[in-house]
Amino acid sequence: MPNTEGLNLEGVGVEVRNGAIIVDDHSRTNVPSIYAAGDVTGKYMLASVAKVQGIVAAENVAGINSRIDYNLVPMVVFSDPEVASVGIAASRMIPSTWLLRCRIP
Ligand SMILES: Cc1cc2nc3c(=O)[nH]c(=O)nc-3n(C[C@H](O)[C@H](O)[C@H](O)COP(=O)(O)OP(=O)(O)OC[C@H]3O[C@@H](n4cnc5c(N)ncnc54)[C@H](O)[C@@H]3O)c2cc1C
Question: How many structural domains compose the chain?
């Protein structure tokens, strides 16, 4: 659950759904001067996504038209050994999409 309590998002008119700040692929909220990145957006709640959302937000603030592609999300489980994946879940694939799997020994 995104931790957005006490940020007064309603007060500044930022759109929130189920506690998550709604952002587009440019990390923009519905308020033009406010961006959001990380778990507060409730998208993937992964460290890798938070980092890229932050970079995308900063680049857009700096005037660079930057966006995140949520179809290419890398996921790393910081376990030992680590587990990683990239791409969309098989359940979200359209029938014509190829599914590639590889294993690193
Ligand atoms: C137990 C656990 C295991 C996880 N394992 C993985 C994993 O294996 N792989 C993975 O990719 N992700 C994992 N995650 C998720 C990952 O930690 C988060 O997705 C990532 O930290 C999100 O970054 P963030 O910057 O959005 O939030 P955070 O890292 O939570 O940073 C938010 C910061 O904002 C501060 N803050 C909060 N409220 C305020 C306020 N009102 N004013 C000022 N500052 C405030 C907090 O103190 C905190 O420092 C795990 C999370 C947990 C809890």
Answer: 1
What the block records as the tokens of 83 is: 């587990």
> Which residue segment(s) compose the domain that 80 sits in?
9-92
Q: What are phi and psi of 39, to 5 degrees?
A: -55, -30
Q: What is the pLDDT of residues 10-38, one digit of tens each?
A: 999 999 999 999 999 999 999 999 999 99
CA of 40 to the centre of ligand 1 (A): 9
Residue nearest to atom 20 of ligand 1 (CA): 47
Please report whether residue 4 resides in a domain. no
CB 6 within 8 Å of CB 25: no
Q: Is residue 40 part of a domain?
A: yes
* Residues having CB within 6 Å of any atom of ligand 1: 6-7, 38-39, 45-48, 50, 76-78
- pTM for this entry: 0.89
